[in-house]
Amino acid sequence: NDKHQIHQWVNGDWQQMQGDARDIGIVADGSIWVAAGGGIFRWNGVSWDRTSGSAVRIDVDPYGTPWVIDNSNDIYELIDGMWIRRPSSARDIGIGADGSVWIIGTSGGSGGHGIYRWSGYDWIQVHGSARQVSVDPYGIPWVAGSGGKIYQGM
What we know:
By secondary structure, this protein is mainly β.
């Protein structure tokens, strides 16, 4: 929420969890990662374990690998315990259950910033612009543009 509190949906109601977050990423196996206060944390079932690195945005791929964006808009992927810098810069990141990684870049557009998909080596720009991205289980991005409009990719 706007106070950075973390809430979990339990038995039809929101329950506040300990800690705070700026962004959250959850894996299909239930692993939860957050970007909070510049740090990166993983839920161990009882409390938050701090990991190395810093981030303001986070998402996690289906294999449990977090991808983050730091406060300089740099993009990193955690591989074998080391943060690997990926090319370009971004404002938001979303990862689908199929493993597809999407970002909202830093280049301006009429509805926000450019939209890009990770090819495995580099970012491929697609048509449109947005401010935020999330990705469905089939790898299709959903974006929020300026004015609160929501668009589904194809």
